[in-house]
Amino acid sequence: MKVTVCGAAGGIGQPLSLLLKLNPKITQLSLYDVVNAPGVGADLSHISTPAETSAFVPGDKNDGLAFSLKGSQIVIIPAGVPRKPGMTRDDLFNINAGIVKTLAEGVAEYCPDAFVLVISNPVNSTVPIFASVLKAKGVFNPRKVLGVTTLDIVRANTFISTLTDANVSNINVPVIGGHSGETIVPVFSVGTPSLYAKLDADAKAKLVHRVQFGGDEVVQAKNGAGSATLSMAYAGYKLAERIIEAITGASDVVECTFVYLDESIAGAKEARAKLGGELDFVSLPVKFGAKGVEEIKYQILDQLNDEEKALFEIAKVTLKGNVAKGVSFVEK
Ligand SMILES: NC(=O)C1=CN([C@@H]2O[C@H](COP(=O)(O)OP(=O)(O)OC[C@H]3O[C@@H](n4cnc5c(N)ncnc54)[C@H](O)[C@@H]3O)[C@@H](O)[C@H]2O)C=CC1
Ligand SMILES: O=C([O-])CC(=O)C(=O)O
Questions:
Q1: Which of 30, 64, 167, 227 has the fewest CB atoms below 10 angstroms from its CB?
Q2: Three-state DSSP class for 75?
Q3: Among the three residues 147, 175, 195, which one is the final residue of a domain in this structure?
């Protein structure tokens, strides 16, 4: 099992690579960054776990990106700039779109069959960019190109457990839509119906708002030194770990992720119909198998309560624009 991290020397990349190094199912851990990857690689390589660590930068005598990607089954991408206070994720588009496009071209050439987990923001646009590049190169596999929205689920689980004094280990709140502000729709009514029922309307509204804008909390607290890195490394690792489980034979892997609703995937047609034919990409619970997304669990769209339905209608409008922006970046 070869896993590559692109952006491995960054705030997310380093702790994410550490968590991956600890997974005994990973035999090769490949680190790529435009700077400092060799140092991070040397450091991690001293850890006494099976994963063999290698590290690459561009212009290596070995052609860094090519060597880091070749043979990878999973590529995780936290490459790009993070927010500073006062910025939206969309403000990162101009820089990160180009970075993601270059990495997508690399994946298309060197490991088109890999699972790709895109962390770089704005996820609502960078995943469509990634998919469009692979499509243009004739190697897009909609079952394997995924936007990482897991941090929203992690936050939803943490925030409701703190509020209700419940054991967080037993909580799994689905979060659907996209990954920015109002496009993030936590579905507490399905994930934790009995805990959620304990809260009054005001507490519910505040909880939803906190999940939607949890990223801002960290950006403000870091005060110019970036955005969530440690919680994001945890969340990115969690999704990667579940995918590794699916690749190695687990049959019960269901996680929320941001995907292209390709009609060849079971449930995608139903999801599209329920979304009024308006969205090509959305985060929903999906079932993973060894070859990627096996099924889109569209049924959740029928289970939303009235508040969640209203939130989702708002999410759809912004999400549609974010997706179109990513697609047109590649078309141009
Ligand atoms: N999906 C999510 O839930 C979250 C996404 N993010 C996003 O993740 C991204 C990374 O955040 P941080 O790690 O905090 O930033 P960072 O600045 O600490 O690290 C980014 C790394 O990417 C590298 N990089 C830049 N261009 C590259 C290229 N062309 N190829 C390979 N590597 C390249 C940089 O050298 C740097 O080491 C940001 O866009 C941020 O907004 C952050 C938190 C949560
Ligand atoms: O807020 C940001 O810019 C980083 C991010 O996506 C998150 O923490 O959810």
A1: 167
A2: strand
A3: 147
Residue 290 has pLDDT above 80, yes or no: yes
From ligand 2's centre to the CA of 83, what distance in Å? 8
Mark whether 209 is an active-site residue. Answer: no
Which of 31, 88, 116, 121 best tests ligand 1's pocket when mutated (most atoms within 8 Å of CB)? 121
The pLDDT of residue 60 is above 80: no
Ligand 2 neighbour 183 (Cβ under 6 A): no
Question: Are residues 291 and 235 part of one domain?
Answer: yes
* Ligand 2 within 6 A of CB of 219: yes
Residue among 255, 247, 325 nearest 296 (CA): 255
In this structure, what CATH number is given to the domain that contains residue 322? 3.90.110.10
Rounded percentage of the chain residues whose pLDDT exceeds 70: 99
Same domain, 222 and 83: no
Instruction: Report whether pLDDT(280) > 70.
Output: yes
Task: Give this prediction's pTM.
Answer: 0.98
Per-residue 3-state assignment (H helix, E strand, C coil) for 241-267: HHHHHHHCCCCCEEEEEEEECCCCCEC
**How many independent structural domains does the chain possess?**
2
